[in-house]
Amino acid sequence: MIVLGIVGPIASGKSVVLEELAELGAVTLAADEISRDLLKPGSALLGEVAAEFGAHLLDAAGHLKRAELAHLIFTDDSARQRLNAIMHPPMLAEIRRRIEQARAAGVELMAIEAAVLEQIGALELADKVVMVTAPRDVRTRRLRERDGLDEDEATRRLQVQEQIGLAHTPADFSIDTNCSLEATRQQVRHLWQTLNL
User: Fold this and answer.
1) What pLDDT sits at residue 123?
2) Structural domains of the chain ordered from first start
């Protein structure tokens, strides 16, 4: 089984790449999906996050207010580091578990999308890594449209990710999404062929 890591900064188009890989037959896994599973209402991990950052981050039904937490970690370096210390170990363990599950099922290719794959400690689990890129102004526009952020907030989030170095993760392949959706998908199909799948 080939484990393919999909990395790149925020709003670079990683989700589109992952969707096309799924269409081609890959088993896919997104870091956001893992974090949502781990932070379900009533989970021990969500309790730990609430204890660290305050119960005001939970709504009346016990769900995490993800937008509020995102705002906090993109404006407070210490908060981001504390959240990472809570989240990264169980995320790494879950990625390992999902990889072994896929391997046991005879999966040919598993693609894991996570901007912070290296920071989680999961980069070594990938056989090959794909860096998804787009110019900064394109990512700013996408981020504003996708998340309803103003210019300042979008710029701040991009700057934080640049400081972390998410655009510099070592990679074997690169996909530039500053093109039509079909052209991006064509690059993914070419990658699939390159991997002899």
Assistant:
1) 92
2) 2-194 (3.40.50.300)
| Residue 175, C-beta contacts closer than 8 angstroms, at least 6 positions apart | 13, 17, 130, 131, 132, 133, 184, 187, 188, 191
In degrees rounded to 5, what are phi and psi of residue 40? -65, 150
Residue whose entry in the numeric block shows the structure tokens 């991006």: 184
Question: Which residue is associated with the tokens 């998340």?
Answer: 147
Spatial contact of 89 and 69, defined as CB atoms under 8 Å apart: no
Q: In this structure, are residues 110 and 122 in contact, taking their beta carbons and an 8 Å threshold?
A: no
- Scored b (16 or more CB within 10 A) or e, 24-52 reads bebbbbbbeebbeebbeeeeebbeebbee
Confidence of residue 197 (pLDDT cuts 50, 70, 90): low
User: How does pLDDT run across 16-65, given as a tens digit for each residue?
Assistant: 999 999 999 999 999 999 999 999 999 999 999 999 999 999 999 999 99
Strand order across the 27-30 sheet: 27-30, 109-113, 2-7, 128-133, 173-176
How far is it, in rounded angstroms, from Cα 92 to Cα 87?
A: 9
Structure tokens at 58: 């939970």
Q: Burial, 118: exposed, middle or buried (Cβ in 10 Å; 0-12, 13-18, 19+)?
A: buried
- Kindly state the average pLDDT of the residues 150-161: 88
Phi then psi for residue 136, to 5 deg, are -60, -45
Report yes or no: 86 and 49 within 8 Å, Cβ to Cβ: yes
